[in-house]
Structure formats: C-alpha cells, structure tokens
Amino acid sequence: MRSRLKSEYKKLIEDVQDTFRLGNRLHALAFKSFGLVYALTFATIFLIAVLPYAMNKILGNLIDVISGLVEGKGKVDQLNLLFGLFMAVIVLMSLAGIARSMFSEMTRIKLRVIFADMMTRKYSSLNLEHYENPKLNDTIQRARESYYWAPQNFIWDNLGLFADFSSIIVGAVILASFNASLVALILATSIPGFFLNYKNIRESWELERKESKNFRDTWWTRDYLEREKDLQEIWVFKAAKYLSDRAHKIYSSTLEKFISIDIKYSKLQVLSSLISNGGFVLIFWLLIKNVLSADITIGTFTFFLATTRGFSSSLSSVLSSLSDLLGQVNHIRDIFGVIDLKETMLNGKKKLKLNSSLPPKIEFKNVWFKYPRSERYVYKNLNLTINPGDNVALIGKNGAGKTTLVKLLCRFYDVTKGKIVINGIDIKNLDVNSWYDHLALLSQDFVRYHFDAKTNIRLGKLAEKRFEKIKEAAQKSGADEFIEKEFPKKYGQALSKRFSGGTEPSVGQWQKVALARAFFKDAPVLVLDEPTSAIDPKSEYEIFSKIFSLDEKEKKVDKSIIIISHRFSTVRNANRIIVIDKGEIVEEGSHEELMKKNGLYKEAFEIQKRGYV
Prior knowledge:
By secondary structure, the chain is α/β, with parallel strands linked by helices. Helix content is about 65%, strand content about 10%. The strands form two sheets. It has a six-stranded mixed β-sheet with strand order 6-7-8-3-9-10, sandwiched between helices. Strands 2-1-4-5 form a four-stranded antiparallel β-sheet, with no helix packed on it. Its main location: membrane.
C-alpha cells in the first residue's frame, strides 16, 4: 500500500512538472506566432474573471442603499451612481465576453494551423525506422489522432486556469478580510474532488496506452470498409460482416473498460460533492448568523455569499482544469515527443556534383544489412558496382532482397556494415537531398495523388513548370494517350472520384502516370521497382523501347537505369541482369549469357515462357 501511494505521488509530481513545462512551451509558441491576439485573449479572460466581484460589491451596496431609502435613510444620488456603475460593469462584461469568444476562437484556429503544419512536416521527415518500431508507432498514431485538438484544449484549459486563479486570488482576499478560516474551509472541502478527478483521468490514460494496439487494429479494419478499392474484394469474398463485427467487438469491449472506470469514480464523486457542498452550507449558516447578530448588513451578506459561491466555483474549476491538464498532458507529451524525435540517420554534408553528363558510379562494398529489430541478415558481404550508363535489371524470388537494395540505395536505411559509395563518396557523408537531385524513383507503392494529371506528373520535379516537358514525359510513359482521349479536362482532370468532376484511372493508367512522374524528373539515375506490373505487353514494349533506347541511333550513356521486375520481357533487354537469391548475387550477365549458364535465370525464364505457350 505504501509503495503504491509512493508511486502515485511520483506520477503526480511528474505530471505536474510536465504540465507546467509543456504549458510554458505552448505559451511561448503562441506568443511567438500570434503575440497580440494571445495577449488580448489573456486580457479579456482576466477581466471576465474579476469583474463579477466588482458587480457583487456594487450589488451589495445597492441593496443597502435601497434598504436605507425604504427606511427613509438613504440618498437617491448614491442609488443613481451605484445603478450606473452596475450597468457599466454589465456592459463591460458583455463586451469582454464577446471579445474573449473572438480572440479564443482565433487562438484555437491559429494553433490548429500551426500544429497541423508542424506535425505534417515532422511526419514527412521521419525515417522508416520510426514507423516500423511498434512502440514508437503507437506514440505516432496517438499523436496523429490528437494533434488537431489536444494543443487547443490544453492551452484553453491553461487560460481557464489563469482566469480561475485570478478569480481565486481576488475572492480569497475579500473572504479573508471577513474571516480567513472561510478560505481554509473551502480549500479543504474541494481537495477530495480534485484527487478523484485526477485519478479518473490518469487511470483512463493508462488504459488508453494499454489499449493502443486494439484502437489501431479497429481503425485499420474500418479503413478496409471505407476504401472503395478494398471493398471490391471484400464484397466478392463476403467478408464485410466479419470485418465489421470484428471491429465492433474489439472497439466495444475496449470502451466497456473505460465505462467501468467512469462508473467507479462517479460513485466516489457523489461523496466528494457532498463534502464540498457541506462546506458551502456551513459558510452560508455562518453568514446568516452574522446578519442576525447585526454584525453585517443584508447587502454585505449578499456580497460575501456571492463571493463565497464565486470563490468556491473558481476553486472547483481550477481543480477540475488542473486535473484535466494532468490528464491531457499525456497527449501533449506524445505530440511533442514526436516533434522532438531525432533522425536515426544523420544527414551528410557533402554535395554530389557531376562533372559531366555521365551518371554517378554506384558501388556496394562489402554490404551487410538487417532490418531494425531483426536478427536475420538480408545481405551478407554484398558487392556490386553500377557503372555510369548501365542498364541493370534485378531479378529473384519474392523476399530475395531486391527492393531492400533499392531502399539502401535511396538511403531509407543505413547499411549495418560495409558502405555504399556514390562517385567516390560514402552515401552516409552525402547530403541526401543533393543525392535525390540526381535520383528518380518509381516504387511498387507509388503515390496516387488526387490532384489533376498535370500536377501528378509535375510533382516529379516542381522546379520545372513547362507544360511541353510534362507532356513529353507522359508520351514516354504512354499516359498522354488516355489523358488526351479519355479525360474530359485532359491534363486538368482531377484523378479521384471523391472530388467533383474527378475520374478514377485504372491501375494500369495510374502506373503510367507514376512512370511519367519518374521520367519527368529526368534524373541521371532512374530506379524502377515493378514499373509495368499492371501495364499491357504492347505498352510495356513501347515504354521500354524508349527506356533502353533500343534504336541504335538513340543510344546514350547519360542515364543509369535500375529495374526490378518479375517480367522477363521487361528485364531481358537490360545490358546487365543480376540474379539475387537469399541476399546474394548468384548470377550476372546479359540475357544471352545467362541462358547459356543453365542456372536460376534460365530456369525461371523457361517457367515463365511455358505460361505463354
């Protein structure tokens, strides 16, 4: 029991420290980004917090003056003055309320924009290793689900805390002038509710962390049921009910645990509410007693009673806001935890500069590689040289390590041992963006942007704006034909039916658009991972006739091409074919040379050939 209390106390202290630390960080960010609006928000909140006490004081005096006038003792001038002040405070409170709503909404919107931008930029800068770490992925997912609301709520509760503290200080001074024990009594009767609320939020958060995997499972399962490309298969296999029931079962059983926590603490909150209300009733009785003994007037009684209620309400609000903040701080920890993530791969500083029209020389030297948190090596002592102008095709069974080689070449991962050298420079020492300036990639999971066709292609090289270059790339990939003939708005056609007037290209058409994007960059090194898996044979032949420059007159050495494909019609025209098996290069040569070796290449070629006979 003692160790448990010690642990709870330690958690509370950590949460309080982080609440103030992260709160200060949020305030600093807000003041830096929109200082004037934020300062005005503070000012209006402060006014609204303290003006009620002024109103209560004026109201108490009004009651005394009216009572005096009824008894023939008061002065009409005093009544008029107090009434005027009372109305002025009402108007000021009304105006302050309008201003607070306006400035608060501006604060919310600006924070939402700031964090949306910060998080989007951060997500795009993380390494693949971050996303493939299950524990870290849970944190990333929680941050993704909360960054659009948690910072606004957290800072709003901070502002509420400031308002309530202002109200409490003024109220405490007023009550202490009458009887200091009243302040102590209200404080003592409010504390149980605070601890219960904090415990409720803390326990709910611990459960949320524990159930992160189940929430992620539910969201992914529901995504399948909301994506039209997945639904087609789901309908045919009649899997919709299974997936829906599965998501419901996991989600509802998880939420039941949260409900149990709320029920448990709601019962305890009834007791804490009786304690706090009991304190107010006791103060009420003491004030009545003072009125009856003629120690205070009816107006003063009204003033102190209203002050007690305001002080008690502000104190409850402070404790509630503080416990909410202590709960919300976990979301803010996740968000700033993601923002503060360090790159697992340090970027180099050397720039890759090509001294001629030749592509760079690429060398894999004694490369060993295994994925993070894996003990199995994908590559052991791999050695491979790609000379300027080489057309290289990589083939092998699924899982042989072909795509991994591309990931290493793009420096999505660092090698475990050995090194990759680009034009004599270790890739780790290269500024990765200078390397990407010379590299174009079409991956298996290429991006399908909902933008128009022109923008989809232009994203390959945003600095190039000439439409004729966009069209040239589309012609090379075969995309120009259907863009011009089938799309009503041609290159201005949005490529998604989810937007008005948009269309949904076929899988093969999408692949041609993505291929055009890679061609549009016109980089010295072109990497194509299964570039024509969904394209018909005729189109494939036409595309690779252009890629490999089969016409002798068009042969050039200004581009190195690396292709991964299972189609032998795609790879056979490469001047170097590399066969990878179990992470090792087992065969290498031209199509004709490999066919003479009677090895894995010939065996796979004959198997595929029989499929066409």
